[in-house]
Specification:
alpha/beta, about 40% helix, 6-stranded parallel β-sheet
Length: about 325
């Protein structure tokens, strides 16, 4: 089998993959056909314009579109591009894809897992925790909470985290990381709130990720908290108590981000996270998530995480098997 990796100019992939015999830079399908002829199979991410173009060659090419988040880029595809197969993570991913592509054969929407999560199978959380604790100069007994801030209500959420932990007099370390696009124009007030967070009465608060990779912070944490960031998904794969703060303003912004293609945040539908919908109760939810005796709710959440995410690191292999089955 001859394979070619096509990357688009200026894309993230183009900065990570050096040009070689198997890597080709192109911004349209025509260039690929001109250099290599018509491919038999095209595997594409949802963000690839070249991959989308190949869906128009239905008689010649089998296209496999891989989702890396529920509903990502649906607004750019729906009604314009239909691949031969969609690959998503789970039953909810199948449902929202089927609603957006009502004429697509249901058996061609496959819950094979998100390949972007395969790398988590190679992570050793205990080792990551030791290294993070050393970098932060904290003892081995104090639990770590990683807060992955996003946009709407992000400063208010951090205030609520600190106030809730202070109310329960919990000794913890909180590491608060920001999304690269924070603050966004819609919520300028969140930056000021971010810079005026009160101190923890017990433990330490680190504002900023301290130069530590987000995935290492997820792996090292007792609890992961966010609105709907990838950190929650990664926390689920690593079987961490994860808390989704879905206050009304956060939920409204989430629906704007997903263009209404995802009516409810998937990890809530899958019951794979603790949910917080009321600001005054965030401290109570965190206290429950921090329980060391593994409460009944924790066991239920973990069981649902195991059901939703195989965490076997083999999603890419399952897609390869699909390719090999195409004649």
């Amino acid at each position: 089998i001859h394979h070619v990796i096509v990357v688009e100019p200026g894309s993230f992939a183009s900065t990570k993959l050096s040009e070689s015999d198997t890597t080709f830079v192109a911004d349209n399908a025509g260039l690929v056909i001109q250099h290599f002829g018509m491919p038999k199979v095209v595997i594409t991410g949802m963000g690839s314009a070249v991959g989308r173009e190949f869906t128009h060659f239905k008689d010649d090419v089998t296209t496999i579109a891989i989702q890396d988040q529920w509903g990502a880029r649906f607004d750019e595809w729906a009604g314009k591009y239909t691949p031969t197969y969609f690959v998503t993570n789970d039953s909810y991913g199948v449902d929202i894809t089927q609603r957006a592509w009502r004429d697509m054969e249901p058996s061609h929407i496959l819950p094979l897992g998100f390949p972007t999560l395969d790398r988590l199978a190679r992570i050793n959380p205990a080792k990551e925790e030791v290294e993070v604790r050393q970098r932060l100069s904290i003892g081995e007994k104090i639990p770590i909470i990683y807060y992955s801030a996003q946009f709407a209500q992000s400063g208010r959420i951090m205030h609520a985290i600190v106030e809730g932990l202070n109310r329960f007099k919990r000794e913890v370390v909180v590491v608060a990381g920001k999304h690269p696009r924070f603050p966004v124009e819609q919520f300028p007030e969140e930056a000021a709130l971010w810079d005026s967070v009160p101190p923890l009465t017990r433990g330490k608060l680190f504002v900023g990720s301290q130069g530590i990779e987000a995935i290492s912070l997820v792996a090292a944490s007792r609890v992961v908290i966010s609105g709907y960031s990838n950190a929650l998904t990664e926390g689920c794969v690593l079987r961490k108590p994860a808390v989704s703060v879905m206050w009304p303003e956060v939920e409204q912004f989430y629906k704007q981000e997903t263009k209404e293609y995802v009516p409810v945040y998937p990890l809530l539908v899958l019951n794979a996270v603790f949910a917080n919908h009321i600001p005054d109760l965030l401290g109570d939810v965190l206290e429950l998530a921090l329980e060391e005796n593994k409460s009944g709710i924790q066991r239920i959440v973990k069981a649902n995480q195991e059901k939703a995410f195989t965490a076997d690191g083999n999603s890419a292999d399952r897609i390869a098997d699909l390719v090999m089955s195409i004649r």
